Amino acid sequence: MTWSLASGRQDVESALRRVGGLPDAAIDIADTALLLAALDQPRLPLERYRHHLSLLARDAAELSSQQAAESELAGRLATLRRVIFEKYGYAGDEETYDDLQNGNLMRVIDRRRGLPVALGILAVHTARAQGWDVAGLAFPGHFLLQFQAGAGRIVADPFNELRELQASDLRDLLKVLAGVEAELKPEHYAPVGNREILLRLQNNLKLRHLREHRPEQALEIVESMLLFAPDRHGLWREAGLLHAHLSNLRAAIVSLEHYLELAPLGGERQQANELLRQLRGQLN
User: Fold this and answer.
1) What is the pLDDT of residue 6?
2) Which pLDDT belongs to residue 165?
3) In what order do the strands lie in the sheet with 191-192?
């Protein structure tokens, strides 16, 4: 959905629900991130942010046509660095990393500062506009990108101007994030889809609200995730637990019933069934 004027929150939510019905490959990752940002500022026009995204893509196209001397992958990364980080001045926000603005793509564009996943979404958008093969990785704790061309592959860090990371760098980073006993595994190199990247973006915000004991705001984030990922049973469970914590009994029951409809056997179903029984008893 494209707007030239500001849209209300209901319009934004409707657009995100439509994203929820799309196959993963059809999701416009940057535009959906803008929609999620617009939930906080629903009357703010999206057009100027979409225009900025188009400028990133246009400038990368112009610059890449001039690249000649470097190898294909190195040239692509050089183009993205020059456009995103040099021309437009983006950078990872090391000083105020936990600022909620770092996970809101509108504010990231305004401030030119953001989290790894937010900057990664800008890089993915710009690269894919050129037809380049780029994917997010399931690396824990710090969002990374993988660029491929033919048999070549580069892992890069969007928080640090797409610095190329070797296996030794990844191993060191993992130990910092997960402890000295942690070791690289094949799943850390696994590519993730567009929906998973957007969930990771929102999860950053949810965790910050939970750390600051703001369950109402954390619930709002979970419900925003359910708009575009309605089949994720774990999100329904989280919504149910947060509603129960906030004494929203009917909403908690509905959420947990959805969870039980979607969740596989085993896991946390027993706990959810017991909580559901208690909530129904309180309601009666």
Assistant:
1) 44
2) 96
3) 163-165, 152-157, 145-149, 133-137, 191-192
